[in-house]
Write a structure and sequence with these properties.
The chain has 144 residues and is of the alpha+beta class. The chain has two domains: 46 residues, no CATH class; 69 residues, no CATH class. Helix content is 31%, strand content 15%. The strands form two sheets. It has a three-stranded antiparallel sheet with strand order 2-1-3, covered by helices on one side. The chain has a two-stranded parallel sheet with strand order 4-5. The chain is globular and about 55 Å long. The chain starts with a strand and ends in a 17-residue tail after the last helix.
């Protein structure tokens, strides 16, 4: 595993873990990286300091904090927001764009949905006045 400091085109800074440097390169080359803050694209590696072992801690030390616990109030708020979205919406997976359009046009029952859409699909929905909101979702939770 490797951790990179990243920055989106809008200047939001965040960290993310990848299986390997080549896994990051593959996702970046396919334009599959999105901002953890705004969901936008244009994500690139940011300047970061090396993590050295020593000074009382091991490399990868979390300062005694379990990895499952949020590292900051912002991370805790994002986790709670994600939990509420998942609890209050129907997951339609890769059918998101078609289902959102059908709801907007009255061809499907109105309800709160979530799912995946390509950047082009999301832009087309927004241009057509379909109310959508891109949200960052961890890769391991996305449907392929």
């Amino acid at each position: 595993m490797i951790k990179y400091s990243l920055r989106c085109a809008d200047g939001h800074a965040f960290d993310s873990w990848f299986a390997s440097a080549s896994a990051y390169d593959s996702l970046a080359g396919a334009d599959r990286l999105t901002c953890a803050v705004c969901g936008g694209g244009g994500v690139e590696k940011a300047m970061m300091a090396p993590r050295l072992a020593g000074g009382g801690g091991e490399a990868g030390d979390t300062g005694g904090r379990p990895l499952a616990r949020p590292a900051s109030p912002a991370e805790a708020a994002l986790a709670e927001f994600r939990r509420r979205v998942e609890a209050d919406t129907e997951d339609v997976g890769r059918r998101f764009a078609a289902e959102a359009r059908a709801i907007h046009e009255g061809a499907a029952p109105e309800r709160a949905i979530r799912g995946q859409a390509s950047g082009a699909e999301a832009r087309a929905l927004i241009e057509d006045g379909v109310p959508v909101l891109p949200l960052p979702v961890p890769r391991e939770r996305q449907v392929n």
